[in-house]
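Lecture notes, part 5. Sequence design as translation. It can be helpful to think of inverse folding as translation between two languages: the language of shapes and the language of residues. The source text, in structure tokens, appears below.
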């Protein structure tokens, strides 16, 4: 079933010049870009996006990281897009992510792991409304 999912190319992706590489993998897979925006976010948006994590020990440095520079926010669409993006992203920790995945090939960090992908269709709806409130 066709779905939409919210993807972030986090500030490490932009800083490292990997936007083309990472976006290219999603496009090559067959997903369609339906919204895309380069922006630097403030802590308030980070708190909304990561509402489920704000009380966690790892959140303060994560908040610092995601607000540290421009990121690319994307809405991708395609069959089973939520699960497909999570599979392409790989495990959270880049050191443990399988080769062939974005994190497994390109990240050596549990925090600076290049990408975000919504973890369920419900999360995708919530996150798309936060990042792209005007998207039809
Ligand atoms: P994401 O939300 O970014 O797609 O990643 P995920 O589902 O694989 O991981 P999640 O558990 O939702 O964590 C969100 C982001 O927080 C950072 N993180 N740091 N122990 C730590 O230091 C730690 N754990 C997670 C990562 O940037 C992770 O993507
Ligand atoms: Mg997550």
């Amino acid at each position: 079933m066709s779905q939409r999912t919210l993807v972030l190319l986090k500030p490490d992706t932009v800083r490292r010049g990997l936007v083309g590489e990472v976006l290219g993998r999603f496009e090559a897979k067959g997903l369609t870009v339906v919204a895309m925006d380069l922006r630097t976010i403030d802590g308030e948006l980070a708190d909304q996006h990561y509402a489920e994590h704000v009380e966690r020990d790892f959140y303060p440095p994560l908040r610092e990281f995601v607000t540290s520079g421009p990121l690319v926010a994307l809405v991708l669409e395609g069959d089973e897009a939520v699960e497909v993006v999570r599979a392409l992203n790989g495990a959270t920790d880049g050191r443990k992510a399988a080769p062939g995945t974005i994190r497994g090939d390109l990240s050596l960090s549990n925090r600076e792991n290049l990408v975000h992908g919504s973890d369920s269709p419900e999360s995708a709806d919530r996150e798309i409304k936060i990042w792209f409130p005007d998207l039809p």
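The translated text above is only one of many valid answers, since several sequences can fold into similar shapes. Residues 37 and 73 are 5 Å apart (CA to CA).
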